[in-house]
Q: What sequence folds into this?
């Protein structure tokens, strides 16, 4: 009995070559990818090279990570203050853009990421336990101080969980425009695999993308 293939299928090409200016035409039919200082500029449907995006080590076991990334303009967060969180969520869901990214990590960076994810879950559960414990002890002792302590510990642990979760991300979008996404998180060695954008900071828009896969894993 053969072992099932757990790797996602290869992503199809996205960018239409005739819609891309000559200076951005990729060689050998590869997807157009550039670096802009510490960020990657990629099509919204992209399969990055089979190298660790953190240290550029070649991946020999074929490990791949696929994720659908979402982005909206950060100014939309002001809607949380007015008119409120519910309106912000509705607007963000309506106007957000998405990109499907496939990337790789070496064994060392995979282990580091798994450790950060586990820490995030443990601290996240701990912040909930602190809040519930503070309320329970306050009810038993009839002292509101325990609620305040539980709430303080909840906030501290929640911040730690958010920081650890952010550190566990492989790449994250900082901007999306037209048919391209700007990604941070790649290491300098990996970034050096791609040409710099030079004085042109924004790739020319191409035809709208209609080739997103139904699901993404990772």
A:
């Amino acid at each position: 009995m053969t072992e099932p293939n757990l790797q996602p299928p290869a992503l199809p090409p996205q960018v239409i070559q005739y819609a891309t200016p000559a200076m951005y035409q990729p060689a050998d039919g590869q997807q157009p990818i550039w670096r802009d200082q510490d960020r990657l500029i990629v099509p919204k449907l992209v399969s990055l090279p089979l190298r660790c995006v953190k240290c550029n080590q070649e991946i020999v076991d074929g490990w791949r990570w696929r994720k659908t990334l979402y982005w909206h303009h950060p100014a939309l967060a002001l809607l949380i203050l007015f008119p409120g969180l519910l309106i912000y969520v509705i607007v963000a869901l309506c106007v957000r853009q998405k990109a499907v990214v496939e990337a790789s990590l070496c064994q060392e960076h995979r282990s580091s990421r798994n450790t950060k994810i586990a820490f995030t879950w443990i601290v996240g559960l701990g912040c909930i336990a602190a809040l519930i414990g503070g309320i329970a002890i306050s009810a038993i002792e009839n002292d509101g101080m325990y609620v305040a302590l539980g709430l303080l510990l909840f906030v501290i642990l929640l911040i730690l969980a958010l920081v650890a979760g952010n550190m566990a991300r492989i790449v994250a979008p900082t901007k999306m425009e037209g048919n391209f996404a700007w990604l941070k998180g790649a290491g300098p060695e990996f970034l050096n695999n791609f040409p710099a954008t030079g004085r042109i900071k924004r790739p020319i828009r191409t035809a709208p993308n209609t080739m997103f896969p139904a699901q993404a894993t990772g």
Notes: Residues 131 and 152 are 8 Å apart (CA to CA). The beta strands are 34-36, 39-43, 45-52, 65-71, 97-104, 172-177, 180-184.
